[in-house]
User: Fold histidine kinase from Skermanella aerolata.
Amino acid sequence: MVRSLRAKALLGLSGLLLTSCIVLLTLLLDQQAEVAGSVREDAVWAAYQLDRETIKLDAALSDYGAGPTPEKAAAVSLRYDLLYSRTALLRGGQLAAIIAIVPEDARSAAGIVDRIERLVPTGDSLDPATLDLAAFQSSVRQIRGLTESQLVRINARRWVELVGERERTRSLSLVLAICVVALAASMTGLIVLQVGQLRDLRRARIRQSALAGELEQALSAAETANRAKSVFLATMSHEIRTPMNGVIGMTDLLLGTSLTAEQRRYGQVIQTSAEALLTVLNDILDFSKMEAGRFELDDADLEVEPLVRDVAELFVPKAREKGVDLAVAIDPTARLTMRGDPGRLRQILVNLIGNALKFTGAGSVAVRVDVDVPGSLRFAVRDTGVGISAEGQASLFQMFSQVDGQARGQSGGTGLGLAISRRLVEMMGGRIGVDSVAGQGSTFWFTVPVRAAWAGSPTAVPGTGAGRSGMAAIPQEPAVSGLRILVADDNPVNQQVAAGMLRRDGHVVDVVGDGAGAVDAVGRGAYDLVLMDVEMPEMDGFEAARRIRRLSSPQASVPVIALTAHAMRGDEARCLEAGMSDYMPKPVSRQRLTETVRRWSRQTAPAGPQAGVPVIDRTTLDDLLETMGPDAGPLFETFLSNSAARVAAIRVCVAEGHGGRLEAELHSLSGAAGTLGLPALVAACDQLRTTLGQGAGSWPEHLVDLIDAALSDVRRILPALAPVELTQEADASALIVMDR
Assistant:
C-alpha cells in the first residue's frame, strides 16, 4: 500500500515537473513577443521622424518665404527630399506591415504617402522658385496635421501595449517563480522518494536474504527429515522382516511335522496372522513411498504367460485348501514378451487373486488375459464370491477403504491393497475397474499398454492346441531335489529356516555365517545354487557376490540369490549390479523358495556380471542408425569382422599369459562395443579385465567363452532390432544394414 502511494506521488511530481517545463517554454515564447515589440518601437520612431521632417519642411518654407535666397531654396529642396524618402518605409517593409496591423493606422499612412507624393506630381526635384509657395505650404501643413495625428495615435496605442506587457510580465514572473518553486519541490520529492526506495530495497534485500536463509534451513530440515524417514523405513523394514522370516519360516516347518489337530490349528493361525502382518507391512511401505513421490517403476523385459502362471501357482495350495477351483486362460495373441515392471505387475495380480480367494467360500476363481485393444492387454480376475454393492464399488479403490462385509474383523488388511494397485496401474499407463453384483461374484480387471521388449518386438507365443486358449486348471510342478545349495546368513534363525525348507525338499545344504565364508566355500566346493544374505558382518553379501564372480574356477558363474530384509527402492538393482542372479526379499515362504530354486535349476546360461544386461541398447543403436544412415552397414561389418579376430587374439593371450596385449585387446573391443551400444559384450570384457587387474599369472578361459557368447548374441539379435540381414556369401559376421 505504501509503495503504491509513493508511486502515485512520484507520478504526480513528474507531471508537475512536465507542467513547469511547458510554462518555461511559454515564457520563452513570450520573450520572442517582446522582441517583436522592439520592432513596434521602431515603427513609433519612424512615425515621429516623418512628423519631424514635415515640421522642418514647413519651417524651411516659411524661412524661404520671408527672404528667398539660393541657400534657403536648397534647404527647402533638401527637406522635401528627406520627407519623400521617409515615405518608402510606409509603402513597404516590416514597418509598413506592423502599421498595417491596425486598419486605421494603415489608412492614415496611405493618405500621408499619397499627399506627399502629390506635392510634386512629376516626381522631379523641388524648385521653390517655380512653386506656388502659399498653396504648397498649405499642403505641407495639412500633411503635418496628419502626421501629428498618426504619431499621437501610435504613441497612445504603444503606451497601452507597454502597460499591458508590464502586467503580463509581472504575472508571468510570478508564474515563473511558482514554477521554479514547484520544480525545486518536485526534484526534492523525487530525491526523497529515490532515497526512500533505496532504503526500502535495502530492507527488502535484507528480508529476502533472511527468508532465503530460512527457506534453506527449512529445505535442509525437510531433506534431513526425508532422509531420516527413508532410513527409518529401511531400518524398520529390516528389523521387522528379520523376525517375521523366523516366524513364517518356522511355522511353515512346524506345519510340516506330525501335529495334533489342535496344534495344527494353532500353527495355521500363527501362519495366517504372520502373512497378514507381512501384507500390512508391504502396503504401508508402498503407501509411504507413493505419498513421498519416490515410487518408481522398473523397466525390464517380461513374458506375460509365465508371469501370470507363476503368480497363479502361488495360490494353488490355498485354493485347494478352500475347495475353490483356480483356473487360468491366456489368449494366444496375449502370449508375448513386452517391456514393463514384472514385480509390480505380479503385485497387482497377487492382490486381485488373493482378494478373490479371500471372499470366495465356494465355487471358482478364473484369471484371464486378452488383448483389450491393439497395443493393450486386459487382465481380469473373476470370482463367484460375495460380490460388491454399487455403493461399495464407489469407494473401493480409495485409501483405507473396506466395503460391505469386508471389515477388518472378517477379512483383515489395511484397505490399501486396491488403492495401491490402482496407482500402480495408472503409473503403467493403464486403467483398473470392477464389475460386480452383490451376491453374484465380482470381476476385477485392469489394462496395461504393450511396449516393445529390448530383445525384439512383442511376439505372440504360438498355442499348443484349442485347449490352451480355454480355461485350464493350474498344475503344481514337482519340486526339484538333490541340489547342493549354500546358505550364507549371519542370523541363526534365518539359517535354520532356509536350511530346513531346502532339506525338506531333498537338497543338500551347507551353512556359513558371513560373506568371507561364502566366498571360501564356493571356491572349494561345487554348488548348484547360493542363497546370500545381504547384511552380514566382516563381509556383506554384495562384496561376497563380487568376489565370487572374480573366482578363476567355473564356480564363478554359480547362480547367487540375494536374501534381504530390505524392501526399499533400489535394493534389487544393487544386488544385480553386484553380480547376483536374483533377488528375494524376506520373509521367505517355502513355496516361493521352492519356486525360485526350481526356476534357477532350469537355467542353462552362466550367471555373471552380465546377467540381466541387455545384449543391445536400443537407444544407442537407433541414434547410430539415424546419424550414419547407409554408412552404418560397413561400420557393423568392420566391427563384427574385427571382433571375431580380437576374440581369437584374446583367447591366445589368455592361453599364453600375455597380460599387456590382453589388456589392449580387451580395451579396444570393449570401447568399440560401448560405442555401438552392446552392453552385454562390454560387461563380459569388463569381467575378464577385472580378473586381469588382480595380477594373476593365468586367467580362466570360460570368461573368454562369455565374450564369445555375447558376440554371438549380437549376431543373432541385431537383425530383429534393426533393418539388417546376414549376407549369404560373406563371412557370418558381415552384416548389411538396410537403408531406412
In short: The longest strand covers residues 363-373. Residues 301-396+431-452 form a domain with the Heat Shock Protein 90 fold (CATH 3.30.565.10). The CA atoms of residues 437 and 572 lie 41 Å apart.
